[in-house]
Design a protein that fits this description.
2 strands; two-stranded antiparallel ribbon; single chain; globular; alpha+beta
Length: 66
């Protein structure tokens, strides 16, 4: 679902992102916090706000513990 939403962004269709390389990784959740994130394999300076927004939205919606 994460890759589908990222590839729906026209200029990212077919591009390889940290989601493709790093995948989803489990994190220790604080009370009410996300239980997963995306492994970072690229330069943090190259990260995009639109992808971060997609990740935050899905983190709030889907919990790896469910």
């Amino acid at each position: 679902m994460l890759i589908e939403r990222i590839e729906a962004i026209p200029d990212l269709r077919g591009q390889i992102t940290d989601v493709h390389h790093g995948g989803v990784v489990e994190v220790s959740a604080e009370e009410g916090g996300p239980t997963w994130t995306v492994g970072v394999v690229s330069d943090r300076g190259a990260h995009r706000a639109d992808i971060a927004r997609i990740i935050r939205t899905l983190q709030g919606k889907y919990d790896l513990e469910d």
